[in-house]
Design brief:
- It is a single chain.
- The chain contains 1 helix and 18 strands.
- With 191 residues, the chain is mainly β.
- A hairpin with a 2-residue loop joins strand 1 and strand 2.
- The protein is globular and about 45 Å long.
- The two termini are 24 Å apart.
């Protein structure tokens, strides 16, 4: 795949299921249960893998010093440092919240946003993994399952195949953007 950094194209020869760019411009590439970090020059600088929890479903690198890795099959998250070393225990979201977490992202306050599919709610978990914010039931807004949530610029974006739902940082629904997407997106800078 190819990525652009400061108008200078860098090419990284690798296979991956998906990749994200962290807050410092490093590329975090995921294939199965393996996460590989490349610097801005395309050099491999760190690796992380854990076969116990299955494949990595998503990575949030918005805070390059506290990278959130989500294993959806086990409803488990772990935080990694800039060297991809675990800085937290593996957190079983089902055990701590009784949620069937299907999508997660890191909040700017270093809490965790969780989309809970059974009740169709967006929830913010504090550092003790307790619900601090919960949205209204979203079943009237969601036609097809969301495949990503991200927080950027004091907004939480829920990416669905038919549209993008926008929430404030208190979990209040604000608007629906009529943007169709069939893949992950990343908001860099202002939207």
């Amino acid at each position: 795949f190819c990525f652009v950094w400061h108008s200078k194209a860098q090419q990284i020869e690798t296979t991956c299921d998906f990749f994200v760019v962290d807050g410092l411009g490093n590329v975090l590439s995921v294939e199965g249960n393996q996460l590989v970090k490349f610097d801005q020059n395309g050099n491999k600088i760190a690796e992380f893998s854990n076969a116990v929890y299955g494949d990595i479903s998503s990575v949030d690198g918005s805070n390059p010093f506290k990278i959130l890795v989500f294993f959806a099959d086990m409803s488990t998250v772990v935080f990694l440092d800039q060297y991809l070393a675990p800085v937290s225990e593996f957190i079983d979201l089902y055990e701590t919240t009784n949620f069937e977490a299907t999508k997660v992202c890191l909040s700017k306050s270093n809490d965790i946003w969780v989309y809970e599919s059974t009740n169709q709610t967006l929830n913010k978990l504090d550092n003790n993994h307790k619900v601090s914010i919960q949205s209204q039931n979203l079943s009237s807004l969601i036609k097809r399952k969301p495949f990503q949530i991200i927080e950027e610029n004091d907004r939480v974006f829920m990416i669905c195949p038919d549209n993008i739902l926008v929430f404030d940082t208190f979990g209040t629904y604000l608007q629906k953007l009529p943007i169709k997407s069939d893949s992950r997106i990343q908001v860099i800078d202002k939207i």
